[in-house]
Amino acid sequence: MPSNFKQIKQNFLKENPEILPEDVDYVLAERLDYTPSEFQMHLEDNLTAEQLKVIRRDLKKLAKGVSPQYIVGYSWFLGYKILVKRGVLIPRFETEELVLWALDNLSENQKVLDLGTGSGAIMVALANKAKEKNISNLTLYASDISDNALRESEENFLNYDLDVITRKANVLIGLEKFDLIVSNPPYIKLDEKNLMDKNVIQNEPEEALFGGEDGLDFYRRFAQQVKDHLNKNGHFFLEFGFNQQDDLAKLFAKELPEFEIEFKKDLSGKPRMVHGRWKN
C-alpha cells in the first residue's frame, strides 16, 4: 500500500488518467501546508495514518470531478488565500494582471467597486496592494447578483480586516457613482460549453461563466449603464475573452464615444483586458 506522496500520486494518476497531475499536487501540497518547492522536497516522505486518511478522502473527491480548490476550501490569488466553495467562481491567475493594471491607476480618497465580486478576490488583492503602496482613504464596495458569492466575499473581507460595503446588484443597476470600477465578468459563449473542463462545468456557477450567445451580454449592459456610475476622471477595468477585442472595440465605440478605450494583452500575449476613462 502506498505510503508517500510520490507513490500515492503515481497510483492515483494511473487509475484516473483524466485528472491533471497539477491538480493532484495542489491537493496534496495544500492539505499538508507545503509550498510547491517544499512539496517536491517531501515526495519521498512516509505519511502518518491520519495524513493518509485525509489525503485518500480528498483524492476520492478529485476523482469524482470536484475542483481541487473546493476540496481544500481555498484558492491563491496574488499571494492571498481566498476562501472558495461550490457556487462561487474560483479566481484565475490571469485576473491578477487586471488587478495590477487597475492598481496603477488608483489614487487615495477614491471610491472603488469590485463589480461581480464572486469570492472577493479582486477586492482583497487590490485593497491590500493599495495599503502596500500607501494609497489611503479608499471607500470600498463589492457587488454581485449571487447571495452565495456575497456571503463568501464578506467572509474573505473579514479575514483580511477590510471594510467593504457589499451590495446585491445586476451589473450597475441601483449602485452609486465610483472613481474606479474593476470586474472579471462572465464572458464565455454558450456554444463553448462543450469545450470546457468538466470539473468547471460541474462545480462553478454558470452565471459567473457564461455571457450569452456571443459572450457579450454583460458588456452591452455595462456600456449602457456605466456613464451614470462613473465619476468625472473615473476609470473602469474589465477582463474579457481573448477573441473578443474586436467586438468590444465596436461596442464601446458605439455606446461610449465619450470614453478613451485602451486594450491590453496578458503575459501570454493574448488581448484580455480593457481600460476605459472619460475623455478630457
Write up what this structure looks like.
It is built from eleven helices and nine strands. With 280 residues, the chain is of the alpha/beta class. Strand 3, helix 7 and strand 4 form a beta-alpha-beta unit. The longest helix is centred in the N-terminal third of the chain and has 15 residues.
End-to-end separation in angstroms reads 69 Å
Helix content: 25-40%
Tell me the major beta sheet. 7 strands, mixed
The whole-angstrom Rg is: 20 Å
How do the strands line up in the largest sheet?
5-4-3-6-7-9-8
Low-confidence stretches: none
Shape: globular
What average pLDDT do the residues reach? 92
- Structural class, judged by helices and strands? alpha/beta
Query: If helices are DSSP runs of H or I spanning 4 or more residues, what is the number of helices?
Result: 11
Helices and strands, in order, run as: HHHHHEEHEHEHEEHHEHEE
Produce a short descriptive summary:
By secondary structure, this protein is α/β, with parallel strands linked by helices.
Which SSEs are present, and which pair or pack?
Blueprint: H1 5-15, H2 21-31, H3 36-41, H4 49-63, H5 68-72, E1 74-77, E2 80-83, H6 94-103, E3 111-115, H7 121-132, E4 139-144, H8 147-159, E5 164-168, E6 178-183, H9 198-203, H10 217-225, E7 230-239, H11 245-255, E8 259-265, E9 271-278
Parallel strand pairs: 3-4, 3-6, 4-5, 6-7
Antiparallel strand pairs: 1-2, 7-9, 8-9
Helix pairs in contact: 2-4, 6-7, 10-11
Main attributes of the structure:
280 residues, alpha/beta, two-stranded antiparallel sheet, 11 helices
